[in-house]
């Protein structure tokens, strides 16, 4: 029997990647990413602030908790943000479903992003969709409640996302010049998200001499721990090594311990020789653990005017070195909620007991993640707080 394989068609079925930004900071990231027009990536904005959401150019938008907040925001209260996401779980399911890989982004410390990102991650987990979360945490001068909220939000998110990168806002100030605008500084953190999206899509987008497929990416993402995604360029003598050096030296990821990575995919693009590839791989192997699984990919068809581009995806780094800074001593240490308590966190279909019974009959349990079918007390507390 003769079997004909159309190699080009294998790469037409590219994975569906979605980016969900939650809250003010998350939606600002979506806003900036929308102007970069990353092909094949769907951008979704979700917020409790109707006015902010209306101004966002995302292709999909979700007003979280319209009944709870009436589109007026969460008032900086993560409990309200969380309950708003719980109220809008159907819209979140519809937005997330169908994606092969989900990027979540939010700013920790406020209300909507801090409270809602955990719910989004839990929904993705219940749908068996791998998620990669990139979040920012407050400046040191934002002492008090925002620091406390951020620590709790990161702790709550961690069990439900496959990989997590936290970026202290203070690092933005450290790598930016004194005359850098605040918007430009936040653009540096967006660059990590953009490089991650571009890196994965470019890894899978074109056939080469050595290829990686989406199953490789998923397997590494699901190893858990910290994740490093970056790109680098090199030219001149030792250009392939210079490209690896560049990919390893993003200013916001400078403290990442790459030698702790459990798995690493490295893709070389450009007209490099076998000797250049060998030298670059030796250079990379010398900076990783002998136990690190390194999967190389090469695309010599892409012409980069004499340059070599390297895309790195490293996972399983443990607690990423961009971990959240310790809470100031005057703020009580946050105790991570036990799994039992997290699983019992309620989501309302309605806040009245009578309407709960009628609504329950109308909903298909297969459409509702298990953690949502627990009860309704939390939204009542949020409503009482919100007024």
From TrEMBL:
PROSITE patterns: FTSZ_1. The keyword Cytoplasm applies. One of its GO terms (cellular component) is cytoplasm. Keywords: Cell cycle, Cell division, Cytoplasm, GTP-binding, Nucleotide-binding, Septation. GO terms for biological process: division septum assembly; FtsZ-dependent cytokinesis; protein polymerization. CDD domains: FtsZ_type1. One of its GO terms (molecular function) is GTPase activity. Gene3D superfamilies: Tubulin/FtsZ, GTPase domain. It holds the Pfam family FtsZ_C. Residues 210-326 form the Tubulin/FtsZ 2-layer sandwich domain. GTP binds at residues 24-28, 111-113, 142, 146, 190. Essential cell division protein that forms a contractile ring structure (Z ring) at the future cell division site. The regulation of the ring assembly controls the timing and the location of cell division. One of the functions of the FtsZ ring is to recruit other cell division proteins to the septum to produce a new cell wall between the dividing cells. Binds GTP and shows GTPase activity. HAMAP family: FtsZ. NCBIfam families: ftsZ. This is Cell division protein FtsZ. The lineage of its organism: Bacteria, Bacillati, Chloroflexota, Anaerolineae, Anaerolineales.
């Amino acid at each position: 029997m003769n079997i004909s394989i159309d190699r080009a068609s294998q790469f037409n079925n590219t994975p569906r990647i979605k980016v969900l930004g939650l809250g003010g900071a998350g939606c600002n990231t979506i806003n900036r990413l929308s102007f970069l027009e990353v092909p094949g990536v769907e951008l979704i904005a979700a917020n409790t602030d109707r006015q902010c959401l209306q101004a966002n150019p995302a292709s999909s938008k979700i007003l979280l908790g319209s009944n709870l907040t009436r589109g007026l925001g969460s008032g900086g209260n993560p409990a309200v943000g969380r309950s708003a996401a719980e109220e809008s779980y159907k819209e979140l399911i519809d937005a997330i479903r169908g994606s092969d890989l989900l990027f979540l982004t939010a700013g920790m410390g406020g209300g909507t992003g801090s409270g809602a990102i955990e719910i989004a991650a839990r929904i993705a987990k219940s749908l068996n969709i791998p998620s990669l979360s990139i979040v920012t945490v407050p400046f040191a001068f934002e002492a008090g409640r925002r620091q406390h909220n951020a620590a709790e939000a990161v702790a709550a998110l961690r069990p439900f996302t496959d990989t997590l990168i936290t970026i202290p806002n203070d690092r933005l100030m450290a790598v930016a010049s004194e005359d850098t605008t605040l918007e430009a500084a936040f653009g540096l953190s967006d660059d990590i998200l953009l490089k991650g999206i571009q890196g994965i899509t470019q890894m899978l987008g074109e056939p080469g001499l050595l290829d990686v497929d989406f199953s490789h990416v998923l397997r590494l993402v699901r190893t858990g721990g910290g994740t490093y995604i970056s790109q680098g360029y090199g030219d001149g003598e030792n250009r392939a090594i210079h490209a690896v050096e560049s990919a390893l030296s993003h200013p916001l990821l400078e403290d990442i311990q790459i030698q702790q990575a459990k798995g690493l995919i490295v893709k070389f693009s450009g007209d490099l020789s076998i000797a250049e590839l060998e030298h670059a791989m030796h250079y990379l192997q010398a900076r990783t653990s002998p136990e690190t699984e390194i999967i190389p990919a090469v695309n010599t068809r892409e012409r980069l005017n004499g340059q070599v581009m390297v895309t790195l995806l490293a996972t399983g780094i443990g607690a990423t070195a961009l971990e959240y800074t310790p809470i100031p001593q005057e703020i009580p240490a946050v105790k991570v909620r036990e799994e039992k308590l997290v699983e019992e966190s309620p989501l309302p279909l309605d806040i009245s007991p009578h309407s709960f019974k009628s609504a329950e009959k109308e909903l298909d349990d297969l459409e509702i993640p298990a953690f949502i079918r627990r009860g309704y007390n939390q939204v009542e507390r949020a409503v009482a707080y919100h007024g």
